[in-house]
Structure formats: C-alpha cells, structure tokens
Amino acid sequence: MPQNTDALIARYRDVVERFSQANRLDCASLLAVSKTFPKEDLLTVALAGQRSFGENYAQEGCDKVRWFKDNHPELSLVWHFIGPLQSNKTRMVAEHFDWVQSVNRLKIAQRLNDQRPESMKPLNVLVEVNIDDETTKSGASVEELPILCEAIQKMPRLKLRGLMAIPEPRETSEERMIPLRAMRLLFDRYRERFGFDTLSMGMTHDMLEALSCGATLVRIGTAIFGGRDYSKKH
Ligand SMILES: *Cc1c(COP(=O)(O)O)cnc(C)c1O
Asked: In angstroms, what is the span from residue 19 Cα to ligand 1's centroid?
C-alpha cells in the first residue's frame, strides 16, 4: 500500500535537511533506498526532488526501473543495485541498472561485463568491501581488493567508480567511526591507482558519522520511507 504522501514528503525533507547540514563541503550525495516500497512511494520522493534510488532485489528493482522508464522518462532517475547479487540474476541487473554497488567477486563482475547491452553506457560499479572481516559477510576482503579492482578496470563494459561497505551496527558513535575511517583510508589508498570517485557508506543509523568520515554517497532507507515490512515478499 502506498503511504500518506504528506508524511513521506516531510520525512524526506527532514533527511535532506540533516544531510545538507552535514554535507558542508558538498562532496556527498544522497541515495534513497526504496526496497520493499511500492512505486507510488518512489514517485512521491522523486517528485519532491530525489533522483537516485537504491534497490536490493533484482526482480523487484527491474520492475520499478521499467515502470519509471515507461511512465516517467522525464524524471531521468538513476538506479543503483545495492543488494547481494547471485549469478543467475546478473543479466537482468546488467540490462536495467545504472550502478551496481555490491560487486564482491570476479565471476559477478565478469558476468555483468559480458551481459551489459552495447546500447547502454558502461555499468558503474563499486566493489563491496568486507571491512569488518566477518566470515558471514559477503564483501571482498581488503587483501583481495586490489586484484579484483585490477581485473574490473580491464573490463570494457564496466566503469569502476569506487568502494562500498556495510559495517556491522555498533553501539556508540565513536565505535561506528572505526570501520568508516578504515574505509576512507582504503579509498584514499587506491583512489589514484583505480580512478575512484565514489565511497558509498552510511545508512540511517550512521549517516552523520559516514559523512564526517568522508563518504561521498550515503544510502538512506528507513529515515525516508519508514520501517520496512518484509512479510509480503522475499
Ligand atoms: C537496506 C539498505 C540500506 C538502507 O538502510 P536503512 O537502515 O533503512 O537506511 C542501505 N544499504 C544497503 C546495502 C541496504 O541493504
């Protein structure tokens, strides 16, 4: 069900306000993470001025991309795939999205490159880094990062833009900054070598910390759209 548009616009404006105040140097941009929300809600936020949207599920995301391309091409929305990506879903993602932030291994990068249609611009990609080094998390390790980046850099249908991370939730602001600072150091270390311009980190619970640690793209879902209801899908 679409939500009350006034309440949604108010939440969006509030996030934009807080984001803008923290983004004093104007180095960062805001990605609206819209997974599980209906296209009507995305339209409300798009009409309020938001241009870039992040989606986590291949089928749901591609349906939304297609709907907006067919019904609101004038909005020129930019679509980021930010969820875990399995091999059997790479084709539909390569055919619909502008960015993939969750590239974490060579096989996925190779498939995205091979499947990106010639009629589209090269696909912008970020390598997801497992900055907390948890065995359960899906990003590339800090050790394998340069090898993976070197391989992606050679792929003609991909454009390597930088790094992405999803640090574990932590109690205090100071603790939250530890992995965020580590990401910024990693980003700076490889920035010139790989031509990085994008560091994607920061969600609803750590947006301000991420901006203060040098994020260039923050991914905000809950603070804009409200809590997610996973019971109906996925
Ligand atoms: C869902 C999601 C977000 C948004 O998280 P919120 O806490 O709702 O702001 C950001 N990044 C990724 C990768 C996500 O899956």
From this structure: 16
- Compute mean pLDDT per 10 residues along the chain, 234 residues long, and list them: 96 98 93 98 98 98 98 98 97 98 97 98 98 80 97 98 95 96 98 98 97 98 94 62
Residue 32 Cβ inside 6 Å of ligand 1? The answer reads: no
Backbone torsions φ then ψ of 175, nearest 5 degrees: -65, -40
Model confidence, pTM: 0.97
Interhelix angle 39-47/5-22, rounded to 10 degrees, is 50
Q: Tell me how far the alpha carbon of residue 174 lies from the centroid of ligand 1, in angstroms.
A: 20
| Distance from C-alpha of 50 to C-alpha of 57, rounded to nearest angstrom | 20
Q: Is the CB of 110 under 6 A from ligand 1?
A: no
Distance of CA 190 from the midpoint of ligand 1 (Å):
25
